[in-house]
Amino acid sequence: MTDEAIEVFAHAAPRIRRVAVDRPWAWLAAGWRDVTAAPRVSLAYGALIVVITYLLLFLLLQAGVFWLVLPLTAGFFFTAPLLAVGLYETSRRLAAREPVSLARALAAYRRNGTQLSFMGVMLGLLHLGWIRLALLLFAVFFGVGFNPSWETLVIKLMAPSAIPFWIAGSAVGAVLAALVFAISAVSIPMLLDRDVNVFVAVATSFAVVRENWPAMTLWAGLIVAFTLFGVIPFFLGLTVTMPLVGHATWYAYKDLVE
């Protein structure tokens, strides 16, 4: 890298703030304020995510591969940061006292669209990688030709013999999820908010997680918990938990990056 390139990168890279370990609770509180400040937009956005999820489930059922629901649901953590772009935009508009609407939220992808697309490709490849690994784990533990009905899948996964599968799957998923979290913790809100490229955004996100690892560990755990609360009631809870975490992520970014 030339001296000029280093200078440009250093100029483009923002400063990172250090925050207290309990700071994620303040982000959640700010996110909830935005949910209540723009309930129609926030809840409609969350409901749209649920509708898209149901459509995907229907397509899997029609294709006879409904068992893929398990790896795809686990992989929701890979795509959720990008799906929440409209929520970040709504929080940005609320802070700037600009009008908000579902149409404006959905149009947010046009802001810095090229770099957001690059980020989407990156997360999409990681999601596909996770699915391939999940298929490999299914083949190793249940047989190469494993393509069961939903009822058979539930029986197999609830059996004591499936414990090694759960351990291996959880370990692999945790490693990939940690990587995705480090990449996307603040990068996508940053791409929406600033005229930067995906490399600067991802590098900033990594630096934020490294410099604030206690707070970011708590934040990652809260994201997992709220996502599970949303998924368990047959995905209906995402109507609320998705907007809450999405808005809170915007405030995390604004708090952590100068």
UniProtKB/TrEMBL annotation:
InterPro entries per UniProt: DUF2189 (IPR018692)
Pfam family, one: DUF2189
Transmembrane in keyword set: yes
Keywords: Membrane, Transmembrane, Transmembrane helix
Coiled coil spans: none
Transmembrane segments: 43-61, 67-88, 118-143, 163-184, 219-245
Protein name: DUF2189 domain-containing protein
Organism, scientific name: Elioraea tepida
